Amino acid sequence: MDTNWTNIGSVDLYPQDLGSCVLVGDVQVAVFHLADEQRWYAVQNYNPQNERMVLSRGIVGDEKGTPIIICPLHKYRYSLKDGKCFTDEQYSLKVFEVREEAGELLVKAS
Ligand code: FES
Predict the structure, then answer these.
(1) Tell me, what CATH number does 48's domain have?
(2) Which of 28, 31, 43, 63 has its CA 20 to 30 A from that of 37?
(3) How far is the centre of ligand 1, averaged over its atoms, from the C-alpha of 51 (Å)?
(4) What is the pLDDT of residues 44-70, one digit of tens each?
């Protein structure tokens, strides 16, 4: 059994098309459930652009077919798929595996 997966609770705890922040070990993880795709995404909550823990409060969107998170402070846009920053390529986010199993959400962030 792979022990790097952490159970972060029932999927019912997570609103669609909004972010939620969970602490996995000492890592703040921003979790998103996109209704259109019915897919989960998880990235670091920390925005490297201004060193703020804010991405779970961001707005989800789309950049040429790629699901993105838009930071609530200065509107930097990051891919939820690979963490690439569309606004300034010097920045990127860590992306974590996340999956649903028997109504529970599991994330691999440690
Ligand atoms: S802190 Fe997120 S874009 Fe500036």
Answers:
(1) 2.102.10.10
(2) 28
(3) 8
(4) 999 999 999 999 999 999 999 999 999
Which residue is associated with the tokens 């922040």?
21
Mutate to test the pocket of ligand 1, among 49, 51, 57 (most ligand atoms within 8 A of CB): 49
Could you tell me the pTM of the whole model?
0.94
Number of domains in the chain: 1
Q: Ligand 1: which atom is nearest the Cα of residue 72?
A: 2
71 Cβ inside 6 Å of ligand 1: yes
* Structural domain includes residue 92: yes
Write the Ramachandran bin of 95: left for phi over 0, alpha for psi from -120 to 50, otherwise beta: beta
**Are residues 84 and 78 in contact, defined by beta-carbon separation less than 8 angstroms?**
yes
Q: Which domain holds residue 35?
A: 16-108
50 inside domain: yes
pLDDT tens digits, one per residue of 67-95: 999 999 999 999 999 999 999 999 999 99
Residue 10 counted as domain residue? no
